[in-house]
Design a protein that fits this description.
Blueprint: H1 3-22, E1 40-45, E2 54-57, E3 69-72, E4 82-86, E5 99-103, E6 117-118, E7 129-132, E8 150-153, E9 158-162, H2 165-168, E10 175-182, E11 185-190, E12 199-203
Antiparallel strand pairs: 1-4, 1-12, 2-3, 3-11, 4-5, 6-7, 7-11, 8-9, 9-10, 10-11
The chain binds 2-acetamido-2-deoxy-beta-D-glucopyranose.
2-acetamido-2-deoxy-beta-D-glucopyranose (NAG) binds next to β8.
Length: 204
């Protein structure tokens, strides 16, 4: 093959690559369909022996019961369904793109929203970044950065990550979300040292 052809082939190949980079693969549900924004899904753990789906629970000791924490419920229990809202809420849910996560049920007894958020400033690595209720929907910016999560493909399913680097103009924590067991609660925490919680999404 002559040099001009090689150069043209390389050019076409890199154009293909950059096009692929612009549209990450869609996240698929347990039926193999694209996970859509604004639709309810039940979160199904890949390893069901330790815990079931996800829900909000009061985990604080003493009188302080709000905001609630996002927890993994008991094995075999379905928990509460969630709805994903990508930056454009009508978009499909795609690997590694920013989205809000909202529980379908009410936040009984607490004034906060049922949207997920991390507990502290998105750049703060000195504290435990629990996932809590009370997040903000939409308006991607530094002030809403705590409420943006992403879903990434794993070997047997998907994991959640906190890393709103493309929309907060900051240097966020950027780590996978795992389970930290505390006082009998399996709490979701943004922490590199934990094994990421591996899940799938079943249309509710
Ligand atoms: C999903 O996104 C992550 C982070 O951008 C990337 O490392 C990974 O290769 C992507 N997986 C797929 C299947 O596209």
């Amino acid at each position: 093959m002559g040099t001009p052809y090689l150069i043209i082939s390389l050019f076409l190949f890199s154009a293909l690559l950059s096009n692929a980079a612009q549209t990450p693969p869609a996240v698929l549900d347990t039926d193999g369909n694209t996970v859509q924004g604004g639709v309810k899904y039940v979160i199904v753990p890949v390893q069901p022996s330790q815990g079931g789906g996800l829900d909000l629970a009061s985990t604080a000791t003493g009188n302080q019961t709000c905001p609630k924490s996002v927890v993994q419920v008991a094995p075999k229990a379905a928990g509460n369904s969630v709805t994903f809202f990508p930056v454009n809420p009508k978009d499909a849910v795609r690997n590694g793109t920013d989205l809000n996560v909202q529980f379908s049920g009410s936040n009984a007894g607490c004034p906060e929203s049922t949207l997920w958020q991390i507990a502290h400033d998105p750049e703060n690595t000195d504290v435990t970044q629990y996932v809590l209720s009370g997040g903000d929907k939409g308006n991607p910016s530094f002030s809403t950065a705590r409420s943006w999560f992403m879903i990434l493909k794993t070997k047997n399913g998907y994991k959640f990550k906190f890393c709103p680097v493309s929309l907060c103009d900051c240097n966020p924590v950027c780590q996978d979300i795992g389970i930290k067991v505390e006082n009998g609660h399996r709490r979701l925490v943004v922490d590199l040292r934990l094994t990421p919680l591996e899940v799938n999404f079943k249309k509710a």
